[in-house]
Amino acid sequence: MGQVECYSGHTYAQEPRAVIWHDRRYPVAVVGARWRTPRGPAFRIETDTGERFELQYTEEADTWSICPLPGNDEPSSQAGASSTEVHKEDKEVPTR
């Protein structure tokens, strides 16, 4: 269901560059917020078409969690149910 393409300089997952969600690639236009959790880096982004996502990289599991934020074109009840964790090897694992 989803993937994250990111820039990696001195560390992996420094900055997301694109989100692939429901077979569509969304380039990141704005990284609105970034923070670090005990699991790894997290980001709130907006795409060049206005979709918004919260992304969390879990270093230990080597997975991304992708959560669409309210205001995207899809219904918000579906957005929360669509969250997934994605391995760098493009394998998908449901978070719930």
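(ticket continues) Second input and output from the same batch:
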Amino acid sequence: MNCMTKKKAALRLRRKRAVRSKLRGSAERPRLSVFRSNKQIYVQLIDDSKGCTLMSLSTLHPSLKPLLEGKKPVEQAKVLGLEAGKLCKEKSITKVAFDRNGFSFHGRVAALAAGAREAGLEF
């Protein structure tokens, strides 16, 4: 990694720690954590009080492959948010704490949040 890449990664981790210090997931309001790489986007529903993951989903999930085929990354993120919202509704979870994980709230992260809101989740 070159110097600029290391600096960007360090700044994202600093933002992540700052957000995480104020944000905790509980049984009644779990944390919806988002991670995006250059090619994929991942979402997890985490209960921090128990230290367990309640649900995880990504653009690599086999059941989502037909829904995501031929779509651009932002559209894929919105579909992922919709599916994550549906899974949360099945587990009777309506309120979540949105954790953007140090990433800017635009593009794929914002599209995922919009899809989750559209599915009925409250942040």
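Agent notes: The mean pLDDT is 94. Strands lie at 31-36, 41-47, 52-58, 97-99. Closing as not reproducible unless the customer responds.
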